[in-house]
Automatic annotation (TrEMBL):
This is Nitric-oxide reductase large subunit. The chain crosses the membrane at residues 6-29, 172-189, 209-231, 252-275, 302-323, 335-357, 377-399, 411-439, 459-479, 491-508, 514-541, 553-577, 602-625, 632-653, 690-712. Residues 35-186 form the Nitric oxide reductase subunit B cytochrome c-like domain. GO terms for biological process: aerobic respiration. The keyword Membrane applies. It comes from Pyrobaculum aerophilum. It comes from the Archaea. GO terms for cellular component: membrane. One of its GO terms (molecular function) is cytochrome-c oxidase activity. Keywords: Membrane, Transmembrane, Transmembrane helix. The keyword Signal does not apply. It holds the Pfam family NorB_cytochrome_c-like.
Amino acid sequence: MKNGWTYLVLAATVLVYVVYIAMAVWTFYNLPPIPERVVTKSGELLFTAQDIIEGKALAQKYGLLDYGSFLGFGGYFGIDYTAYTMKFFVDKIGQLKGTALASEIKHLMTPQFSAKTSSLFAPAAGVAVVSDEFGAAYKQAVDFYKQLFGPKAEEIGLKPNLITDPEHVRKIVSFFTWGVMIAMANYTNGFPYMPGVLAPNIHVTVATWATFFILLLVIMPLAGWIIIKFIDYWKEPRITVDLPPPSKEQRLALLGFVLAVLGLSIQGLLGGYLMHKYTEPSTLYGISGINNVLPFNVARALHYNLAILWIAVSWVSFALFVLPYLGVKLSKGKVLAILGAGAFTALGILLGVWSSYLQLLPDPLWFIIGSQGRPVISQGTLWLLLVAALLSYLSVTVWRASKTSPEPIQPLVKILSIALAGTAFGAFMGALPVVTPWWHFTIDEYFRWIIIHSFVEGFWPAIVIPILLILLVIAGMVPPKMAVAAAGLDATLEIVTGMIGTAHHYYWGGQPTLWMYVGAVMSTLEVLPIGFLIAYAVVLWKRGEYKTELQKTLLAFVLVAAFGGAIGVVAFGAGLINMPVVNYYTHGSQATMVHAHLAMPMAYGVPTMLMWTVAFALAGAFGAVQLRRLRIAVVIMAVGFYLQVTLSLMLLMTNQFIATTQVGYWASKAIFAPDGTPAFWSRQDIQMYVWLRMIGDVVAAVGIGTFLIYMLRGLPKVFKT
């Protein structure tokens, strides 16, 4: 079948969204219950469904989920509001009853729901009855959080006196308390862990064993098939395409690359700042007042948004640079308009997050043009809609370009177009609802992770791999038939496993338990296509299939990306935090940082930096000397991230795991215990491990700085030429 891989990728794209819509119907009819009223056994009203719903929205408005986390979802520093509130209740109930007996405390902690589940169209139903001791603990929790988010806010890394409205605090604590209630009622598969009170249920272990079995069942025959195809296509004829010097319109696109490398540099500085805040939450090297301008939650949101933006801006710029080679006519005005729209959107996202978290935007503008307050997907809905529109336009443009591109690479260009369209639809889903937050936390998490995976695990690989393979094809290093097969296989597997595998984030958020089995199995299968790319790159290297400086550069970057992505995605992603029985104890910990700080910069950052390098080389700004030095620079950057992981993040992850298993999940993220005694982030050994990360930060900065210097120096040559 002509372009059979193209049709397969298109079918996979449609399939995953059909599956999501079907599963959404089932999920949204089986939500953890939000009771109309929560009352004590003696009949006292504690809070209502409206308090819970408004408390969730307020937690987002104040940026609390980019500081701490709820059911493990959110920031990696601060406290987990569900686990910490549970610990607070356990302590207070024990004091009120004069007992330390876990079974008795557990009985007093467990609510009685008269309604089993909520649904999308029936948000609140029934009554929840709690013990009188639970009610007394709730009132004390409100007083505790009034101090934590008020006078003590600056001490823990937040804006000074972040929340001064006592009614806002009460509603937020009602939301936290609801999290405790659904956890105790076993709607979260036994999460968060609290010795003697809450533990993982049987599904956690069974799902893990099922994952191992299905992985072995699938991986062996599929790996064999890949090897056969690898051998079949290896001797296919190769082509070499000599590209002419870029036009003036193409050279304008390189301005986007310079903006991207500046964004990467600022992102790196913010990463170092965030780790400093782990050890000194209230000041910066003793200088007070910094939290008025750049508290932890603001810096974190800007840090990960810059990671997304510099990569996205680079891809848009590279598309503008390459499209004329594929027969698309671009005027100077159109190039500048697209770059301007991208820069406007990026700047709007960053300023929106900053102004929203500092409470400078009123309702509902903070949600629309500021920040939704959902971690990672914190962009205001207006900006997400603009991103979706820009990606849709690029998808259509690239599809048209496939008709005029050289015949051997036409399927690769079409796969790229489909992947852009899939990402655009994911961005649109992330913008829902446009004006106000979702009322139920479980619905919110359902949509939030869809957009994250449509960008990272699902469609981004289907964008990056075709681009890399197009470069390898025109450089004469990969036979076109092999490139199409590799791109088609990778895109199909990544889209299906990466998108449906989104469910590995649904273990503890209140989604139906079946999602645990689906997520564990499907996301683990994401490792398969990466192995194919590593195998081919290694064979190229061993056989000496590189002659020119550009070929050597392509191979070096692909190897760094393939191995780094394999370690970050396979070892620390699918192989570690994806497994339910491991994820239960490491969810939302530095284990996720280990995964992200290898997978993101290696699997996506390095290929993006290769786009910079190739474009500047074709524009005459980089010669043989610059290419050799940039190959060294990208290796240095990779070494920096490996040092981050080995000297700091893995040690933090291990100690968090120990703290969780010995004391409870609450202990792995807290600066101090509810009674005021120092906790995890106050330990001297932990602070030392945090500071050790500076070694890796500095090494990575040397590599990134080299790119920044060479690109700034090369830009004048681009326009002189």
